[in-house]
Amino acid sequence: xxxxxxxxxxxxxxxxxxxxxxxxxxxxxxxxxxxxxxxxxxxxxxxxxxxxxxxxxxxxxxxxxxxxxxxxxxxxxxxxxxxxxxxxxxxxxxxxxxxxxxxxxxxxxxxxxxxxxxxxxxxxxxxxxxxxxxxxxxxxxxxxxxxxxxxxxxxxxxxxxxxxxxxxxxxxxxxxxxxxxxxxxxxxxxxxxxxxxxxxxxxxxxxxxxxxxxxxxxxxxxxxxxxxxxxx
Amino acid sequence: xxxxxxxxxxxxxxxxxxxxxxxxxxxxxxxxxxxxxxxxxxxxxxxxxxxxxxxxxxxxxxxxxxxxxxxxxxxxxxxxxxxxxxxxxxxxxxxxxxxxxxxxxxxxxxxxxxxxxxxxxxxxxxxxxxxxxxxxxxxxxxxxxxxxxxxxxxxxxxxxxxxxxxxxxxxxxxxxxxxxxxxxxxxxxxxxxxxxxxxxxxxxxxxxxxxxxxxxxxxxxxxxxxxxxxxx
Amino acid sequence: xxxxxxxxxxxxxxxxxxxxxxxxxxxxxxxxxxxxxxxxxxxxxxxxxxxxxxxxxxxxxxxxxxxxxxxxxxxxxxxxxxxxxxxxxxxxxxxxxxxxxxxxxxxxxxxxxxxxxxxxxxxxxxxxxxxxxxxxxxxxxxxxxxxxxxxxxxxxxxxxxxxxxxxxxxxxxxxxxxxxxxxxxxxxxxxxxxxxxxxxxxxxxxxxxxxxxxxxxxxxxxxxxxxxxxxx
Amino acid sequence: xxxxxxxxxxxxxxxxxxxxxxxxxxxxxxxxxxxxxxxxxxxxxxxxxxxxxxxxxxxxxxxxxxxxxxxxxxxxxxxxxxxxxxxxxxxxxxxxxxxxxxxxxxxxxxxxxxxxxxxxxxxxxxxxxxxxxxxxxxxxxxxxxxxxxxxxxxxxxxxxxxxxxxxxxxxxxxxxxxxxxxxxxxxxxxxxxxxxxxxxxxxxxxxxxxxxxxxxxxxxxxxxxxxxxxxx
Lengths: 232, 232, 232, 232
Known about the structure:
The structure is a homotetramer.
Chain A: H1 2-13, H2 16-48, H3 58-64, H4 66-90, H5 98-111, H6 114-123, H7 129-159, H8 169-191, H9 197-213, H10 221-231
Helix pairs in contact in A: 2-4, 2-5, 4-6, 4-9, 5-7, 6-7, 7-8, 8-9
């Protein structure tokens, strides 16, 4: 079997095209899951939305359904931000192994539950304190789980030399530090639930906005611009 | 950190293959959302459609459900046309940055709500004037939001030099003018709601047809034909 | 504007990579729609399926739901066969233009309604003759519409020289003849509805099986095998 | 027609780019189906989930819905593991033919029913022995059908020389043996249903875990690591 294995690695890693296809398929597959997650809340609006409520005037029914819109926007913001992070990290991944794919499946497992927990959260914003804390805890659990496995993905890809071979180690560490910061900030936002759930929700959305702005590992136009000039 | 950033741009933009994968992933991801949006109304037909209505003869039930078919066709026409625009613009995008991805997420945020607003619209075509105006306004809001962010995407990609470096600036401006025209025409079609909602809806469908025919930035066969001959 | 257009065609068609991406994106986008269509009936089984029926023993409930399983298998067979045809035709498409994309959208418009009409059909197999004929007619309408637009796609791609430039014209015509045969056979199968709806349904499934076996334009292993030997 | 066929094979297999696109499209298409299957149970949680149950306190309602969470995790684990297998096998496929695509469609036919059977299974874990055995049998039938067609896919691709031409035949056989082992192990796990359904379910999850760890044909980091060093 050892001979077969040695040859296997030769066929697998000896071709540039093969490598690119491997990592690209993981991205395509993950994008399928992201696409469903991003649209599912809009489908939910359509199916159990205000238009179906009877015994109410349409303007009132539409206005009364504000938690549904909020759940849609929250889901879209969170899932969109996670997609950005996923896109930014996987750009640097040159090869994949079995464990990296399994870690990515765990990331997707948590991402796919975001619509469910975001919907629970928005439904219970007007409820009692117990409901608010429970749903906020579930929601944070989902987002925490996702960011823990994103961190593990990056750590594993670095450890097993699956990243681009000539990637600067300092950049790898800067990305790891930034990715590690996220679950910690989420925990802080979670602690605020015990003070005020609405405040906690706002803290999350602020965090999402913060991560949309960019940092090490994100795509930045300025760096590209200089490059572009020298290439022209 | 500055050193890491400088090297980062080197790894990122120094390879042709990388660039292509970056822009291609955005297209794949967006196509996932488009695919769900295009099929969701057909799924809706299946789930809450005429076949489920009891106490009616099947031919009557099917005929009575015409607003559902209309909503399906409207959604398909609009989302299909937006997909064409998206396809035509992104063909020229060579690189992406964080902001371009965020702008694209906003485009998708509005696109994903098209089934919901198209369904509301078609449900209320037989309703009172208030319902017609409200749902038409919501619908236009969605399409307007989408086309505003499409404009911003193009403007940003041009400003940050993310387009193909040897693209003719006159073509870039011609595409920008055409893209800018669209929200203005949509606003005119919206104003017609206050005269007649059905007329307004027809104006939209005309607009969609107009944009399907083609213009600067669209794929045209004639140009390709000449090219093809010279290449042969 | 004429100058801009001339340059545009240069940027667009002057690069091999661009062409491949254009046609590839259409395939990815169409695959998103096909993916949803193939799975939607299984989701339907899950949501309104036998497990939800109350007041019945599980074995009876499962057995009683056979039209749902039939609808799933029919939808999968038809949509799978259409995907194969789509795959086989688009392999030869080297470039796209606006009209080809619009024709492809029409193909998708009809494909997305297959689950709805297949579900109607299977629900009414035990109903009266009127219901059987009406739902069979709707079903054939969908499949006919799809195959008419598939024919138009191929005819347009050939006429506008969007196919691979060195493709044998005899092969192009053989594929066109085979694609044209399909709507005719579907019409014959439809005419059988007036004799016996169940017989008509069997005729369809036979047709699908016939098209799965292969013909000109389909991928055949034997040809590849010879090629493979000469390449080795 | 024979002349047309000979030339056809020339156009089809004479270009490296074409081949890669053919196999890549099958992966993209399959990933669309996998993406929907992985997320559908999370959508199910959202739509018929505990939040919709009335007359219960939220904490109780959430706790009472544990079979739904179990169904989600089971579906995700199984479908994720099948995706991994699919990814690992298709990496070695260089070309496709009509029959390989048909076999792949059969694999997808069974995969798309996993959410339905997993849901039935988890709903009836608290039911009588008849329900437990029936739903476990259905579930195993689905997974068995899937793995039989995965085996056929590999056997056909090998027989028709559709795999990478320089792939070691010993590796091809090692992968075939491992793929063949799976339906046998599934049958054993099924036999356990007649002793204890819960034990049988645990045996499946163990099997899934076992296949996640890796074996011949899976991506392994160690082999890549050595390769990476020699390439540096």
